Amino acid sequence: MRIRIPMLAATVAASLTAAVSLSAHATPPMAAGGMYTDAKGMTLYTFDKDPASGPSACSGGCAQAWPAVMADSSDKPQGDWTMMPTADGGNQWAYKGKRVYRFAKDQKPGDANGDNFKDVWHTVKQ
Asked: Which residues, if any, are the signal sequence (predicted)?
């Protein structure tokens, strides 16, 4: 009888990788200094011009500067954190009914360079 240890090892490694990937996507936003951040410590923002329902008001160049915080298929809404559909069929995280974004000019965890930007972008606060 021939034992296929490399195949078993590959299967175990793939299973562990999948488990780690799922837990990485399901990490809820964290509070840091009164603001919510993603799992990497990057500040989260809302946009005053977004409608209460319907598509985001941030597209094109705006979406490049302010990337949407997308939810993974394994993520589940909880409390004030919900999901809103995107134009491409995905789901974007929302806090208290407002879509959530990151700011491209935030370079390191804890940066909040986009807070009150043009008086329409605001950090997500507890």
From this structure: 1-26
Q: How many structural domains comprise the chain?
A: 1
Amino acid type, 1 = M
Q: Is 72 exposed, middle or buried (0-12, 13-18, 19+ CB in 10 A)?
A: middle
Of 113, 25, 126, 30, give the one whose Cα is nearest residue 70: 25
User: pLDDT tens per residue, the chain (126 residues)?
Assistant: 223 333 333 333 333 333 333 333 445 566 667 899 998 999 999 999 999 988 999 999 999 999 999 998 889 999 999 999 998 899 999 999 999 999 999 999 999 999 999 999 999 998
Q: Is the entire prediction scored with pTM above 0.70?
A: yes
